[in-house]
Structure formats: structure tokens, C-alpha cells
Amino acid sequence: MPEPSLDVLAIGNAIVDVLSPADDALLETEGLAKGSMRLVDAEEATRLYGRMGPGREASGGSAANTAAGVAALGGRAGFVGQVADDQLGEVFAHDIRALGVAFDTPFAGPEVPTARCLVLVTPDAQRTMSTFLGAAQHLPASAIDPERIGQAGILYLEGYLWDPAAPRAAMRNAIGAARTAGRRVAFSLSDTFCVERHRGDFLGLIERGEVDVLFANEAEAKSLVQAEDLESAVLAIAPKVPLLVVTRGEAGALAVEGGIRHEAPAEPVVEVVDTTGAGDLFAAGFLAGLAQGRPVAQCLRMGAIAAAEVISHYGARPEADLRALVAEQLEGAAPAA
Amino acid sequence: MPEPSLDVLAIGNAIVDVLSPADDALLETEGLAKGSMRLVDAEEATRLYGRMGPGREASGGSAANTAAGVAALGGRAGFVGQVADDQLGEVFAHDIRALGVAFDTPFAGPEVPTARCLVLVTPDAQRTMSTFLGAAQHLPASAIDPERIGQAGILYLEGYLWDPAAPRAAMRNAIGAARTAGRRVAFSLSDTFCVERHRGDFLGLIERGEVDVLFANEAEAKSLVQAEDLESAVLAIAPKVPLLVVTRGEAGALAVEGGIRHEAPAEPVVEVVDTTGAGDLFAAGFLAGLAQGRPVAQCLRMGAIAAAEVISHYGARPEADLRALVAEQLEGAAPAA
After folding, report:
1. Which of B49, B87, B94 is the closest to A113 by Cβ?
2. What are the Cα distances from residue A45, in Å, to A48, A58, A61, A116, A276?
3. How distant is the Cα of B208 from the closest Cα of chain A, in angstroms?
4. Which residue from A158, A225, B181, B196 has the highest number of Cβ atoms inside 10 Å of its Cβ?
């Protein structure tokens, strides 16, 4: 098996985020569950946008944020996702390439616009998202080049992309290509509502051994196996997957590999400004560590460091020098194998 | 003369800013003078964008920022400017309306895209701007409704808009309409390069008595009358205009009205993050004070407070509650007449 030319190739929704501060009253009036992500059509997106305050646009998308984080950590990252040939598509492509992520999915025509995610950030730094999938939901199976997949050490997929049919088929192809090439497949459950929509499919993937690394937060893990508490969920899932990673916000994160459990505390943060991207950047840190051949305990630390950086400012992509942060925080740790 | 239904009606370039951190080396390679604004065509905008790091998009435009600031201070503000019927035009219109600014300039077709300003923010918080004027330069004279102009207590114009021919004609019409209605005209010199391009026109406006309030920073004031130092510039300009306001960055600001000079220090700022919008928000604070009938010394303080807020974060529009800040900082001051 040749050496991979990419550390992580991520496939996900290519989305531009519109961040706007909001108060709890707006969530209540709109009937939005705090911290959730829901899908909306163009009409609803327009209506809600009209009720939002002034926004800041920044490229986002869960797996795209993870790819950006891997690159910021010095890893070789690629991203596959569909944007349209419009202004927001141009912004998305510029930003991810400027971060050093390989991105060459051809633009779709401008008829269906680039996806956008309306992110309401409440004073408690929680984000509540309404996503108009637009062009992202039309990622064709043809965008998946099996050769390209085979060149990446880790294929990373977001559960969100399971919603629309075309990208779901593309992701199944990608999983097949990665397995054929002997590469690892990492999968994020993304969101509890997403798990509810696709529980059977997600469990199927895991039980057929098609996922090597599973990322979930506490609520997603419980939802997947419909467990009452975290420990029951971990006991139910861990035996089915080679490496399970569960993030727990302020309570840190845990990983179970081959029956051995590792835990890491959250990194201290002076002020939590906006939790958008916390899970995405945790995955970035963890995967970057994995690609460097680090032990699981160090991968957890790297995830925690990357997540702490992204929640200390607005927006879902890193602003500080993540590589320097990791070098500083992990100093004294054994170098990568 | 009926009571005005708007405090300030601003006319300017309707622009979406793309902010990106940059180092001094990039400015040097690109031959850009730090702190300047230059106009670029679509091709140059695309080339420079390709060399920039990942960006954050936020609505901007000098006079539009001022209108946003007036609204944030509790004033009744309106804005006239041209955007295209495209995604960035939609973003611009949403943001300015969400701030409570009346904006009803009809969208132009999507053939010429909405203006964007590439803002390179260096670690010293200075911003260097390359503006692609796009649709903004096609603001037609028909966008100026004399009745609307007559309803605003103060008409505020940015010198930047003097560059393209169509908006220049529109602004001349607007000045005529304001004078006919007995309203005040405020004018910002915008930028030293702008003054160099239009010195004759700007001096003509002032000498014909068409400007009641002139805003300039130190460099612009010196450039206008080609003076060696600030004091000479003030002596040369002040007799020609009822109210001259000169901002001096950290050195504060001064105003001369009817031969009487007022000065105010800059408000202290914990950390200067990005000076984009400092002059625009100073003008907003000053004009909001003027509209409230406050004495010039208090208008200067209000300008300083609004400018201090906007330079303490990324982006050119206020994030904090400016009205509360002014109430707090000016507490004990005489209430508005």
C-alpha cells in the first residue's frame, strides 16, 4: 500500500455560515431548540434571515471546518463538497484553499445557490442553526474519485451529509473506495436530530464494520443506541467500532480503543464566545494526531486544544496558530512515532 | 419648515467588506500603502483575493457605516446606495435594515456585481483597502428623491462617491435638494488619495457654501489645502465652512465653529483590534449629537465614544450598545436641548 498523499480527506456539506447574535426570546418565538441544527427550505431561510440581526459571513460546514483544522495543525487535508457558481461559492472555495486545503470539486451552475447556515449565537455562546442546503445537497456520486479517496490515510464523513440522497450515495461510494484501498474511515454523527433521522443507516454502517473511528458527542451517542445515560451508550457502542471518541463539552472527552478507555479534560478557556465548530475542531485535532501516529491519549489532548481555540472567538475555523498551540501544550510529550 | 422625519440621510458606496488578517510583507509585495484605499477593477480584485488568507464578510461602506452608527445611537437614519440583485447585495440590504436604517434604493440587475472591499488588517490594527466598486458606481441620479432628501435634518455624503460619474451627479442633485429644503449638508473627505483626485471639486463645494459640516482626518485636511502642518490647514479651511471637524486618531479630535475651537481627547481603548470604521463611527457619533441639538464639545465626545467601540473589534459597524455607552460616558452632561 503506497504512502498516503493526504492525511485526511473530508466529505461534507459546503456551507457559508451567517452568524448573528440573538437573544433567547428569538429562539422561543421561532420555536427553535437551543443548540440544534435543522434543515430549512429557501423560503424559510429567507423568512428567518429577515428576522435576524446583522450578520457576519464566514465559510463553514462541519467536515470542511475539520479539514481546515487539520490543515491548520500542519496536516495534509482535502475536502469534497458542492458549491454553486455564485458569490458565496466563490467565498467558500477561496477560504478553504487559502487555508491550504485541497479543494477541487467542480462548481455547479448558479440555479441552486450555495448552501448557507443561519447561526443564531445566544449570549451563553450556544449556537442554534438553520441550514438551507442548496447546492450542497446535489453533490453527485461522480464527485467521488476512488483514486483520490485511496490517496488519503483517513476518509472523514459527516452524518449531516446523509440527509440528501445524492451525497448519501456519494458517501457510500467513498466508503467502498477507502476500504478497497485499505484506508481508515472516520464518521461523525453530527447532531441528535440527524441520528434520529438515520439511526438505522448509521448503526448498519457501524455493525458492518465500515466505520473505523466514530465521533459523537454525549447526546448523539445516547441517541444512537437509545441509551439512558452515557456509560450505557459507551458500553453498547464501543464493542462495535475499533475506535470510539465521545466529546462531552466542559467535561472533556473520552475514547475507547480495543476495550481500553482513555479520558482527557477540556482545555481551559478564558471566555467562551461562540461554540460553533467545537466538535469539528475536536475531530480535527484528534485526526491530525492519529495521522501523526500519536497514541490515543495525545490525540484526545490535541482535539481538546483545537476545540478550545475555536470556541474562544466568533466563527467555526481556527484563528490562532494551532500548530504552535499544540507544540506548546503537548511539550514534553513523546514525539510522534 | 416641517420637522425632519430622519436625523441623517447618508449617501455612499454600498459595499460588502472582506476582512482578512495580513502581514506587512504582503502589503510590500503588493506595493500597497498602509492605511490607504485604492480602487481596483474586477480582474485586480480577483487576483488580490487569490493572494489573501481566509476572510470574513461583513457589510460596510463608509457612509453606510455612519448611517448604521447613527441608528445604533438611537438616531433615525437612512441610506442611499446601489447594490446588485445578487447574494452580496442581499447581505448588504439585510444588514443595514436589521440595524434600523431605512434603505430602499432599488437593486440593480446582477450583471455588474455588488461592490466589495478587500480589507487587509495588519497586526498593528491598520487596514489597507482595495475596493472593487461594481454596482455602487452606477447609482443613478434617479435614486435621489428630492422630497426624501428634504425630510432629513442632515444630508451626509462621502467623498469616495465622487469617483464615479453617475453617483457624483446624484450627489450634486442631493446637495441642491437639501439646500432648497433648508437642511444641513455634511461631507467627509474620505481619504487623502480621494482628496488628491478631487481637490478642485471639493474646494469648490466648500467655497460655494454648499457644505455645512466638513469631516476630515489630519492628513486629508492637510491635503485639501496642501498645507505643511495641521494648524495651517485648520486656519485655511475653518473660515470657509460653518463647522469643521478634524479627527486625529489617538490625539483625539477638534472642531471649529464660528471661529471657536473645541477639542476632545480620544476615548481610551483596552486593545485596538482593527481601525476599520473609526472615522465613519466618529462621524456617526458627532452627527447623532448634532441631531440631538447637543453643543459641539459633546458631539466630539460622542464621536470619540463611538469610534473607540468600533476599533476594539473586527469590522466597521458597532457591536456594543452605543446608546448605553454614550449615556454612561456622558453622564452628568447637560441633556440635549
Report:
1. B87
2. 5, 17, 16, 9, 19
3. 39
4. A158
